[in-house]
Design goal:
Blueprint (H helix, E strand, L loop, with lengths): L6 H19 L4 H6 L1 H19 L3 H6 L5 H13 L6 H25 L1
Length: 114
C-alpha cells in the first residue's frame, strides 16, 4: 500500500519541506527575507511542517539519529507558533542558512542508504 505513514514517509515529507526552503532562500540576504513577508511566512510555515512531521517519527528512529537536534526542531516550531507576529527573523534566517541545509543533507543521506 502506497499510503503507509512510517518513518520513511515522514522523512520524505521533511526532505520536501527542507528542499523548498533551500530552493527559495539560497540567494537571499537577511534584509531581503525581512522585506519579503510572503517568503518569510512561507519559510516559517515549512519549518512548522518539518516539526509536525518530526513529531510523527518513531522514538526508535530519533534515538538512532541523535545527530539531529530533535528538541531544537520542536522548540523552533513552538517559538514560531506562539510568537508568530513577533518572531525574530534573525533566528529564522540563521536557521534557514545554516541548519536547514545540514538537516537536509543528513536526511537525504539516510534515504539514499535505505
Amino acid at each position: 500500500m502506497d499510503n503507509v505513514k512510517n518513518d520513511r514517509y515522514y522523512v520524505n515529507r521533511i526532505i520536501n519541506d527542507l528542499g523548498f526552503i533551500v530552493a527559495h532562500t539560497a540567494r537571499i540576504t537577511k534584509e531581503e527575507l525581512e522585506k519579503d513577508e510572503v517568503l518569510a511566512d512561507s519559510a516559517m510555515f515549512r519549518l512548522i511542517q518539518v516539526s509536525e512531521s518530526a513529531d510523527k517519527l518513531s522514538e526508535d528512529f530519533k534515538a538512532q539519529n541523535t545527530e539531529i537536534p530533535w528538541r531544537a526542531v520542536k522548540g523552533l516550531r513552538n517559538r514560531i507558533v506562539h510568537e508568530y507576529g513577533s518572531v525574530d527573523l534573525t533566528i529564522i534566517y540563521d536557521t534557514v542558512k545554516n541548519d536547514v541545509p545540514e538537516l537536509l543533507k543528513i536526511l537525504s543521506d539516510f534515504i539514499e542508504k535505505q
